[in-house]
Every structure is written in C-alpha cells, then in structure tokens.
Amino acid sequence: MKSETLATKDIILALATMPKRTRSLLGNGKKYKALLQEILKYDSEVEDSHVPSSKELQLKTNLDATKCKKQLVEIYND
Predict the structure, then answer these.
(1) Model confidence at 43, in pLDDT bands (50, 70, 90)?
(2) CB 73 within 8 A of CB 5
(3) Are 12 and 52 in contact (CB under 8 A)?
(4) How far apart are CA 8 and CA 48, in angstroms?
(5) How many helices and strands, by DSSP H and E, does the chain display?
(6) Is the predicted pLDDT of residue 48 greater than 70, yes or no?
(7) Spatial separation of the C-alpha atoms in residues 73 and 16, rounded to whole Å
(8) Where are the domains of the chain?
(9) Ramachandran angles phi, psi of 41, nearest 5°
(10) Three-class SS of 17-52
C-alpha cells in the first residue's frame, strides 16, 4: 500500500510499534528527527502507554498539519 493513501494515524501506529526499525532512522540527519523522537516515546510494552495523535505530535514539534503529514510519510518511506 502506498504511504500517501495511508491514514496519518495508521502511519503513526506503524512507526510506533516498530521502535527498533524506527530508531535506526534517528542518525540519518533528516529534518524529521524531533517528530521521530516524539513517536518513539510510545512504548508498546507498557499497557497504558498512549500512541500520540497527529494533533499531539503537531503541538509538541511545532509543525502544521501539512508538514507533519509530509514528514510522517518521509519517515514511513525511509
């Protein structure tokens, strides 16, 4: 499935539930580092851990909706 057709929440969930793979993208010097760090705060091993919504990520990273989605797709594709 193309990432452009995935819902934002599905991309966030996919990235959050693969922390080892997602964490490997931190050192590549891309603009999405802050967004990636926020997603990685989710811990699927902790029962009451919360997957952040797009709105929460936007507020924590000071990105507008368009930039947030663009960066999420870029992370997903990488």
Answers:
(1) low
(2) no
(3) yes
(4) 21
(5) 5, 0
(6) no
(7) 14
(8) 3-77
(9) -70, -20
(10) CCHHHHHCCHHHCCCCHHHHHHHCCCCCCCCCCCCC
Q: To which residue do tokens 């990520």 refer?
A: 57
CA–CA separation, 43 and 35 (whole Å) = 15
What pLDDT is recorded for position 47? 64
Neighbours of 78 (CB within 10 A): 13
Judge whether residue 65 has pLDDT over 70: yes
Residue 9 token pair = 């929440």
Token pair of 30 as six digits: 């891309």
Kindly give, in sequence order, each residue whose CB lies less than 8 Å from that of residue 52, ignoring residues fewer than 6 positions away: 12, 16, 38, 39, 41, 42, 60
